Amino acid sequence: MHTELDLVELADTVKRWAQELGFARAAISGTDLAHAEQGLLDWLAAGYHGEMDYMARHGLKRARPAELVPGTRSVISVFMPYQPPQGAPADAVLADGERAYLSRYALGRDYHKVLRNRLQQLANRLGALIGPFGHRVFVDSAPVLEVALAVNAGQGWRGKHTLLLNRDYGSYFFLGELFTDLALPLDEPEPLEHCGRCTRCLDACPTQAIVAPYQVDARRCISYLTIELQGSIPVEFRRMLGNRVYGCDDCQLVCPWNRFAVTTAESDFHVRNGLDDVTLAELFAWSESDFLSRLAGSPIYRIGHERWLRNLAVGLGNAPSTPAVIAALQSRAADPSELVREHVLWALEQHGVMV
What digits encode the pLDDT tens for the residues 50-82? Predict the structure, then answer.
């Protein structure tokens, strides 16, 4: 049985090891998320989760770590910056309608695998030191209220765009958790949130998906529309997408706290396949085999080639009416996929081209 002093030393050791494994910080929270339960229920009742049925599937277990993983007594919360050190400036890409904008987190390798592997290494080192212990690793892959846990651990505060904000790192980072059955000493949460009267994230959202401070209607969110939505993108939002073909960073790009954001030290998050600075037409020309081979190991891989083309077709519909843009769209006007064809025809109509 570990004494209180043992556990204090153990917590310090865990935090040091986490940094050695590439995490910016590790902090420890308890399992009480009762304050988050009503907000979760209200968000689900409003239908803001859209087609993300998994958000409702586990009920309040999402807010009850000790029910989700019986025996959990403390949660080690970690985060890892992802902004690549060398990449085309986001503002410049967004301003060029012929280029494809992909969320900065998706330019490198799949963060799920990277963080999960590092957290498992942390658990293995801990087990080698103290012997077997109950634990489970989470990286945006199960019903976990990761922002609420991180806030409780003192990793930052929830911004009005609902993402975690940290005074030293902004918001460009991935979160992960290690649930344990150890009674580790808990860190103190931030005494205050530091958004004040700022509403830049709400004002900047292209689709007005941030319907109120700390509330996002996913059904309007470009990240949801280009990643989670399975079928047709609602016509009412297509013009608003601009050239954003995988996710959206607008609420982060305008956040004053991101002037403190750091670039990642993790090579897996460096730009791959030139995705930071590439034309919509070039990506639209990728065959399915091109997509599968080039994006293997990327978070983009999971949406599949059909939805990739759907998103790019919308981007091309919003692009300048250049010969290259029109030719790209016409090349897939008879695509075997009804989903792709529908978006291509819409895009051609935006350029006054009838098929």
Answer: 877 776 676 677 778 888 899 999 999 999 999
- Asked if residue 187 lies in contact with residue 231, where contact means CB atoms within 8 angstroms, the answer is no
Q: Is 107's pLDDT higher than 90? A: yes
Q: Is there a catalytic annotation at residue 277?
A: no
72 in Cβ contact with 65 (< 8 Å): yes
Does 249 belong to an annotated binding site? yes
Domain boundaries, the chain: 4-101+108-180, 279-355
* 128 and 121 Cβ atoms separated by less than 8 Å: no
* Cα pseudo-dihedral 332, 333, 335, 339, rounded to 10: 110
241 labelled ligand-binding:
no
Sign of CA dihedral 306, 310, 315, 318: positive
Q: How many CA atoms lie within 13 A of 346 on its CB side?
A: 22
- Assigned fold of 279-355: Leucine-rich Repeat Variant (1.25.10)
d(Cα 230, Cα 67) in Å, to the nearest integer?
31
What is the spatial distance between Cα 80 and Cα 113, in angstroms, rounded to a whole number? 13
Rounded Cα gap, residues 182 and 267, in angstroms = 32
**Which residue did the predictor score with more confidence, 86 or 284?**
284
Site of tokens 């065959």:
287
Average pLDDT over residues 79-106: 96
Known binder of ligand: residue 221? yes
* Pairwise CA distance, residues 289 & 48, whole Å: 35
Confidence at residue 56, expressed as pLDDT on a 0 to 100 scale: 67
From the candidates 140, 181, 277, 335, give the one annotated as an active-site residue. Answer: 140
Find where tokens 């012929």 sit: 98
Q: Are 77 and 28 in contact (CB under 8 A)?
A: yes
The answer to whether the pTM exceeds 0.85 is yes
Of the candidates 185, 220, 195, the residue with the CA atom closest to the CA atom of residue 6? 185
Tell me how far apart the alpha carbons of residues 9 and 29 are, in angstroms, rounded to a whole number: 16
Q: What angle do CA 310, 315, 321 make, to 5 degrees?
A: 125
Q: Is position 223 annotated in a ligand binding site?
A: yes
